[in-house]
What does this fold into?
Amino acid sequence: MRQQLTEGNVGSHLVKLTLPMMGGIFALVAFNVADTYFVGQLGAKHLAAMSFTFPVVMTLGSLAMGLGVGASSIIARAIGEGQHTRVQRFTTNSLILSVLAVGIFVTLGLFTIDPLFTALGADADILPLIRDYMQIWYFGMIFLVVPMVGNSAIRSAGNTTTPSLIMTIAAGINIVLDPLLILGWAGFPQLGIQGAALATLISRATTLVASLLVLHFQEKMLCLQIPRLQETLWCWKEILYVGLPAAGTSMINPISIGIITSLLASFGAESVAAFGIASRVESFSLLTLMALSVSIAPFVGQNWGAKKYTRVTMALKLSFLFCLFWGVAVALVLVPTASWLVAKFNTDTNIVSIATLYLWIVPISYGAAGVILVTNSAFNALGKPIPSIVMSVMRGFVLYIPLAYLGGNLVGVQGIFIATSIANLVVGVGAYVWNQQNCSIRAILAAEQAST
It folds into this structure.
């Protein structure tokens, strides 16, 4: 729980934090890509069923991410302030809170599978496959939420290597189990789409055990004493002050994707399947920017807590420049390789052409998407969740969905993809401007003078 990030070269710290996270996020993306690939071998119907589950899975993952962001924000600032007892209290109580949240959402989820996915556009042929997958996935939610909160707490201490290693091991287990349980290799029963859910559950269970062991024995961030109710409620209030808005912010994107999936369903199951494949390729393309956005949070939190504001502004400047560079580089790579990449998942001509179209249009906005990710993470690390909510609402509900509806009616699937790029570009510019107004040295000094 040392203040590891408040001294030394800013750029070097960001690289050391981001590189391990790239490995961990790569493992998670490979985890999802493996599921998509092996389920794709079962046919377009099974692939479409899995694509329908993405928004719901991402929404509940966003709940876990939000709780992790809330915990990480207050823990990192407490470390920067040198308040180690509070660090242990916040960490322990964040895990208790995550277990309670799991119980509520699992109960709701199991009773709403059919009406929810029917509303998303799933027909009678696909709905049984979705039900087979989600009934298992929901029971494994505790293995998703608790480790995600735990790993966020570990990262807040400046340790991104151990969480990445945990994520990589879990992904490796999932990739090994997928062909065995989905396709029935090596004498295992062929469970189809249920096998994908079961492989996910087993691999996630390893992260639960590993993260708790690291928190207790390596980082010493857990308090084994039974907390007083008043103290627990106080901790939960502090966590949820940032965590609930962060969870809400994170949920906006998958909810938007759910609505977009419903729009795409009107163009046929092939469009939904193509969107699922393109989204997986996109995850690989954005993993470096996602890793950077995760890494910026503990850096900003610790340095803000230690009142080293110049280091915060320098880190954000370097991060924004890298986002723009990476976005341009990825777009140039995807133009000639998109159709080849998509064909690795499914060779259906319609699916390949639609997914390729997505990967030609949307990547021009990846740099702006990276700026949004970094800005949201920085604001949450500062304990200022409102800007992140506003930007996410603007992107998802004010721009993305209305433009996608309009574009779909005017020019078809292509119009929906164009709407994605426009929403990213507009909000990306706004995110940069808002960040400069709040996190520049001039803005910080003006705020301090006004408070005195």
